[in-house]
Amino acid sequence: MSIQRRVSSALAAIALLAAGAASATPIVTNHNLGSIDAGEGAFIGQEFTHSGDYIDKFNFTFKDAGSLLGVLKIFDNPFIDVDLNSVSLFSGGKFLGSQGFDFAFDNLLAGVAYSLVVDVDVVRKPFNVFAKAEYKGKAFNYGTPPTSVPEPGSFALAGVSLLALGVLMRRRLFG
Fold this sequence. Notes:
The chain is α+β, with helices and mostly antiparallel strands. The chain has helices at 3-24, 152-174, and strands spanning 27-36, 41-48, 52-62, 66-75, 80-91, 94-99, 102-108, 114-124, 133-141.
């Protein structure tokens, strides 16, 4: 076996070991978004330069009860691939749901601590020292949707209809 072939085999083995070690333990990052008012949002995102399984936790509370809506966009390049596994919501360690790039979580309470967890896999192609990729997005507190309340005209119309039915039934019975 030639020296060049041995060196190539050794480099390939080192690359495989490094890739296995990088993907074995997730890289967890915590981000504090603070308290989000109804009608406001917070930017979320992360930049990557190395391969691995990344778990980003965006911790927040709502000042007012509402729904969390958002969208993520991946900006990868020919040298780094970013794959979104999931966007999940937790509260007090309890799993509340999981979605994809476009996410919506309803009925969130004011003052409760939540964690929006973004799980991505990053694969960096060899021999690209300065390449980087990222995902960006915005999580938005949509607020509580308004409840529909019938207008007074609707009540009047319903009342007149019931009165007309009563008159017709009386005529038919006592005719």
